[in-house]
Amino acid sequence: MKPLWQRQIYNRLIVPVTRVATPLVTRAVPKVDRGIAARQGVLARWQRAAEATAGRSPVIWLHAASAGETLQARPLATAIRRAQPDAVIFFTHFSPSAERLVHSWDVPDAVDYLPLDYPAQTRQLVELLAPDALVLVGGETWPNLVWAASDAGVMLGQACCRLVGSARVKWPVRGLTRDLYHRFDAVATIATADAERLADLGVDASRVRVAGDTRADVTLERAREAGPDEPEWQPPEGAGPVIVGGSTWPADERVLLAALARLRTTHPSAIAIVAPHEPTDKAIARLESRARGFGLETCRFGTGEGLAECAVVIVDRLGVLYRLYAIADLAYVGGGFGGAVHNVMEPAAHGVPVAIGANHGQPYEVDVLERSGGLAVVDSPAELAARWRAWLPDDAAGKAAKAALEQMAGATERTLAFLREGGFPI
Question: Mind spelling out the 3-state secondary structure of 390-416?
Answer without folding.
Answer: HHCCCCHHHHHHHHHHHHCCCHHHHHH
